[in-house]
Design brief:
The strands form 3 sheets. The protein has a 4-stranded antiparallel beta sheet, with helices on both faces. A two-stranded parallel ribbon has the order 3-8. The protein is of the alpha+beta class and 384 residues long. Strand 5 and strand 6 form a beta hairpin. It has 18 helices and 8 strands.
Length: 384
């Protein structure tokens, strides 16, 4: 290529690179870096090991999209640059403080306001529209639900590094980042990857209530409270119920304990603020939600996506762990619920809140149950 052409090409690349980063900042993204599509060559092997070990639990979509997920060009062969974006959602206070309030329910920080998928996707689409108009190139945007390995790509782009808890850690925002990706056919300047700064620290591993990390940089979703409360259908194994404490949607422990969070206080003014009514909701109030009330209360929240029955299942486990006898009546009323998942967890909660004699009398007068999972809860509770 002649020098003049090369210089024009370099100048265009620089202008487009600067443009996408400045527009990302204007739209409220805290971080914007660029990686080439071939920057995660070991992702396929790591994904294969994760799937073959069964650590994806019931998330069958991870296996079904394995080929497309393993490499960006498998998803879109024409991609030349990947713009990775991060938005800080760090909480004002340590979210673990609610664990000392057993009559309150703990909802993961990211779910205390609008669904971040919609927030990030809306901003990404606006960024893509502006960039495509300026560059004259094709673009695609992805947020979480698409078969894109955002965390390895974000590390390759330099937003941070994947910590021992497998989540992205940023020197600027700790473990609190929403991620999004913009794929484009434009040739942009790439950024250097970030170095791993975890060192000998294992705070995140030790903080996990259910020992979901078989080794540093590895996670087993089958033991993760976030998976159990959000993705898992049906009864939750007895092994994990006590460890769940009052966590009813997600778990922030491994994120909250990260020492790099001390830098997350430099929060964007555009950051989503938590809804006051989702900071410390009363378990007793949540147990009263029927389907319509649940949909109304969690309108616009990612919590709504798991459905009322799964949500009440989780809340009953929190009730059983609370030690609060005033929750006996709200739990008892749910023994007749239409959902077997709810009825089963109501049995367990009552077995934890009642005296042995009280529970024996309750079981003796219980209505005929036909669901095998619920019958199993009655048998297990009676044998305890």
């Amino acid at each position: 290529m002649p020098d003049d052409d090369r210089q024009r090409d370099e100048k265009r690349r620089r202008k487009l690179t600067d443009f996408v980063k400045s527009e990302a900042t204007a739209l409220g993204f805290d971080l914007c870096r660029i990686a080439p599509p071939d920057s995660i060559p070991d992702a396929a092997e790591k994904l294969a090991a994760f799937l073959e070990a069964g650590r994806h639990a019931t998330m069958a979509w991870m296996a079904e999209t394995r080929d497309r997920r393993s490499a960006p060009r498998a998803l879109w062969p024409e991609v030349r640059s990947i713009v990775m974006l991060g938005m800080n959602y760090g909480p004002e206070e340590d979210p673990r403080s609610i664990l000392a309030k057993p009559d309150k329910a703990a909802i993961s920080v990211y779910a205390r306001n609008r669904d971040y998928h919609e927030v990030i996707k809306g901003k990404l689409k606006e960024l893509a529209t502006r960039f495509a108009a300026r560059a004259g190139e094709d673009v695609k945007v992805f947020v979480d639900t698409a078969p894109v390995m955002e965390k390895p790509l974000a590390a390759a782009a330099g937003l941070g590094w994947q910590g021992k808890h497998t989540n992205l850690v940023s020197r600027d925002y700790g473990s609190w980042l929403f991620l999004g990706a913009l794929f484009t056919t434009a040739d942009l300047f790439i950024d250097l990857p970030e170095t791993d700064h975890c060192g000998s620290c294992r705070a995140c591993l030790d903080a996990c209530p259910t020992a979901a990390f078989p080794a540093p940089y590895q996670i087993d979703a089958r033991r993760c409270i976030s998976y159990l409360t959000i993705e898992h259908k049906g009864p939750i194994d007895l092994e994990f119920r006590r460890a769940m404490s009052n966590r009813i949607y997600g778990c922030d422990d491994c994120l909250a304990v990260c020492p790099w969070n001390k830098f997350a206080a430099a929060a964007s003014e555009m950051k989503l603020k938590a809804r006051e009514d989702l900071l410390e909701p009363d378990i007793a109030m949540l147990l009263q939600l029927d389907d319509q009330a649940f949909r109304t209360f969690f309108s616009g929240s990612p919590v709504k996506r798991i459905g009322r029955d799964r949500f009440i299942r989780n809340t009953l486990i929190a009730a059983g762990n609370s030690g609060r006898r005033q929750l006996i009546d709200p739990c008892r009323r749910l023994l007749d619920d239409a959902s077997p998942d709810v009825r089963g967890m109501a049995v367990w909660a009552l077995s934890q809140l009642m005296t042995g004699q009280e529970f024996t009398l309750l079981a003796a007068g219980a209505v005929q149950e036909l669901d095998e999972d619920v019958l199993r809860e009655w048998r297990l509770a009676g044998a305890a």
